[in-house]
Amino acid sequence: MRGFSVITRDATPRIALREQTERSRDFYFALFSGFPNLVWRSDAQGSCDYLNQAWLDYTGRSREAELGSGWMEGMHPDDRARWSESFDRAYGAMQPFEIEFRLRRADGEYGSMICVGRPYQDMQGQFAGYLCSCYDNTARRAMESALRESEARYEGMTANVPGMVFQLLRNGAGRVSFSYVSQGSEALTGLPESQLKADAESFFRLIPASERTHLAATLEASAAQFTTWNWAGRLLPPHGAKEKWINIRARPRRLDSGEVLWDGLVFDDTQGRLSQLEVERSREELRALSRHLQTIREEEKARIAREVHDELGSTLTALKMDLDWLGNHLDDDVGPLAQKRATMGKLVEAAVAATRRIVTDLRPSILDDLGLAAALRWQAAEFAKHAGARVEVDAPETGRYVDRDIALALFRIFQETLTNIARHAQATRVAVKLSSNDDTLVLEIRDNGIGLSEADLRKPTSLGIRGMRERAQQLGGDISVSAEPGSGTTVIISIPSTKRAS
């Protein structure tokens, strides 16, 4: 007898689980379909069995053409070998992966994609394939490429700049570092670019110790006031190279972090500074020559004054004595002869007065005999007599010795100033003050005339002021002229008490 044995099991939980799984799959597929990133899935053999709508829209291909390994037709040929190697390695170990490749868009151009894949399991917990999400990295790659091109252009420009282009960063603690240094840094400093970036102090150590304090002060002032950092000084390259003169110019800006960043340039000013020193040396030689010529001229004036005084003065005096003798011996009834003698006497007196004036103009004896203060008062009185202006002189007799050349220079400058006042100022009042401190003599002349404008002071024909300044500078001093139209003029001459070249 034959029959069947039937075992009945309740399949309801399994069916419910399958239906739940299908609903979950449909839910996630629907979710992935609306996901903005490109999503695809592979089965356990690595073959593509799902792509979302974003993928299809991006590639412009049908789902059927992309399934399996068809999607790889859109991958850039140069990236396929690298993709296969990376994917096979991850697939063999069933590990997550992240690969960047280029994928052809619907317009035929390639975009950069970063694909992140994660393994997933089936209901039994077995490896079932990869779920992958790709996001478009094209914009970022374009920005990186543009940045590289910009940096290359910037580096190309800075490489041709004769100096060191830099970015100097100072943090909240006051520590400085170079965030950028151009390729020209080594030619200028003798230090490689990498060393300057690693240790900014290696640059500052090249500055002579006596000049670092001023350098640090200018940097601090620039950071505090956010003004352009300007500094000029010496730099001592390593390995015994010749010292250089450099000029630093940089503009600061504050970063969001609160740090201060300077964008600037260090350029080699050695040739300019040497040229400047040569010009200054030439000027000093010219000043020395001018001093020598001035001394010779003053000595010649003094010699002529002595000869005029001794020779012509004595002759006129003898002539005056002879005329007086003749007058005493003429008879009273010789009227025409007496009149002629009187006329000759007046001419001789005029000649004596003229001789005395010429001698005084050539070399005022009062300056040698009574000193600078007395000579200033005498000259002021003479000016007031002829110009009709009121002159007040504050020049006390201190008994202090003033070098002959310094006293003569101040006196001649004073004479030239009074001449200018008489010619141009239309002043009615002049105030003169002579003062001194431990090492400087100061002569101040102030008038209430029509004044001067800046244009007047800069005129090429203003030779009087230039001559006075040259006289003062020959002895290490200087002159300042301050004036405004209608407010008078003030001239201040300052000369060291002891002679020294400017």
Attribute tags:
single chain; 502 residues; alpha+beta; 5-stranded antiparallel beta sheet; 16 helices
Which class best fits the helix and strand makeup? alpha+beta
Largest sheet: 5 strands, antiparallel
Number of helices: 16
Distance between the termini: 142 Å
The percent range for strand residues is 15-25%
| Count of β-strands | 15
How confident overall, as mean pLDDT?
82
Coarse shape = rod-shaped
Fraction of helical residues: 40-55%
Strand order of the largest sheet: 2-1-5-4-3
User: What are the segments in which pLDDT stays under 50 over at least 5 consecutive residues?
Assistant: none
Rg over CA atoms: 50 Å
Write structural notes for this entry.
- The protein has 502 residues and is α+β, with helices and mostly antiparallel strands.
- 50% of the residues lie in helices and 23% in strands.
- It has 16 helices and 15 strands.
- Strands 2-1-5-4-3 form a 5-stranded antiparallel sheet, with helices on both faces. The chain has a 5-stranded antiparallel sheet with strand order 7-6-10-9-8, with helices on both faces. It has a 5-stranded mixed sheet with strand order 11-12-13-15-14, with helices on one face.
- β12 (429-436) and β13 form a beta hairpin.
- α10 (270-329) runs antiparallel to α11, α10 (270-329) packs across α16 and α14 (404-425) runs antiparallel to α16.
- The protein is rod-shaped.
- The termini are far apart.
